[in-house]
Amino acid sequence: MKVLAAMSGGVDSAVAAARAAEAGHEVTGVHLALSRNPASYRSGARGCCTIEDSNDARRAADVIGIPFYVWDMSERFHADVVEDFMDEYAAGRTPNPCLRCNEKIKFAAVLDRALALGFDAVATGHYARLREGPDGLVEMHRAADAGKDQSYVLGVLDQDQLRHSLFPLGDTPKAQVREEAAARGLLVADKPDSHDICFVADGDNAGWLREKLGDRAPNHGGDIVDDATGEVLGRHAGTYGYTIGQRKGLRIGTPAPDGRPRFVLDIEPVSATVRVGPRERLAVTRLRGIRPRWCGTVPTALEGSGVTVQLRAHGEEHRARVIVSLDGPDTEVEVELLDPAYGIAPGQAVVVYDGTRVVGSATIAATERVPA
């Protein structure tokens, strides 16, 4: 096959490209330039898409012996990922830009261009496994290395995208990938993994949003309120600086009567109000998902011992019952959590599993909490 290997400049994508070439595929490496103004150097393990990353990817391609190109996807990335991130936070929701990038950029814009250029598949360094199911469809399963599993952020891929994807690292522990990179002479063998949001290089989401939103922010300050009593406990500089479940950085001078910490329970951008309360008020038992994307056949209902949902990229699994329903022209997903989850915010993704198989995902629109 003709394979386009997406090379970020990290160890995972480099080894994935090397494995694809070693398997006999005709491989071409491509680095995605996603930043309009890439920095010269990374900040430790934060950020990506820097000039340094591009050079690291090029050197890895040279060692592997494959052609290499840089594709400028910065405008598409800004429109589909960065702008979406800002809009969601301004509306009081908590988005996951990695899912949006996979959905809109890596397995949409890049895959579409690759297929138009005559490539058969796109290979990445994601940790997930693909296999053919009994119905002939391509199934996506969790990676062998549970600590590195990335099936959650790939839960937005549909069947056509899965048929044109390769994940060469899905069966391999991360430590072994680094050893292999060193044995292959790849200089990125010891390069730190990138983490957090790639376009917020210093990890300060609130500061980044404050700078970028400017006059677009719905408010520049408001009250932090005790949800039970209505007492104003403090002021904030903008609701976009908070997310449901947040405990640190509230800067509330008045302690709770019982001395326990408070958490963000609700965010109301219109009234510029942040409501806080005890952790037990964060317990969610039901949620509603919109804009579902299915990896294969659209289910109508899922239940049983193997049915679980994951609500964060590195979060735990929760046993669940899942019902898919049509509400007018739109499909919605109703999820009953058999084990309560805490700190779940609208805008996050719910990814549905049947055992290790990824069924699909949806964007959380609303949650139902345990009554006070």
From TrEMBL:
Disulfides per UniProt: 101-198
Top-rank taxon: Bacteria
Residues reported in the UniProt entry to bind ATP: 6-13, 32, 125
tRNA-specific 2-thiouridylase MnmA-like C-terminal domain mapped to chain residues: 286-364
Enzyme Commission number(s) from the entry: 2.8.1.13
Record: active site: 101 (nucleophile), 198 (cysteine persulfide intermediate)
Biological process, per Gene Ontology: tRNA wobble position uridine thiolation
Stretch list, region Interaction with tRNA: 148-150
Keywords per UniProt: ATP-binding, Cytoplasm, Disulfide bond, Nucleotide-binding, RNA-binding, Transferase, tRNA processing, tRNA-binding
Record-level GO cellular component terms: cytoplasm
All copies of domain tRNA-specific 2-thiouridylase MnmA-like central, residue ranges: 213-277
UniProt subcellular location: Cytoplasm
Reactions catalysed, as given in the entry: S-sulfanyl-L-cysteinyl-[protein] + uridine(34) in tRNA + AH2 + ATP = 2-thiouridine(34) in tRNA + L-cysteinyl-[protein] + A + AMP + diphosphate + H(+)
Site (Interaction with tRNA): 126, 348
Gene Ontology molecular function: ATP binding; tRNA binding; tRNA-uridine 2-sulfurtransferase activity
HAMAP family the UniProt entry points to: tRNA_thiouridyl_MnmA (MF_00144)
Function: Catalyzes the 2-thiolation of uridine at the wobble position (U34) of tRNA, leading to the formation of s(2)U34.
Family: Belongs to the MnmA/TRMU family.
The protein's name in its UniProt record: tRNA-specific 2-thiouridylase MnmA
Native organism: Nocardioides marmotae
Source species taxonomy: Bacteria, Bacillati, Actinomycetota, Actinomycetes, Propionibacteriales
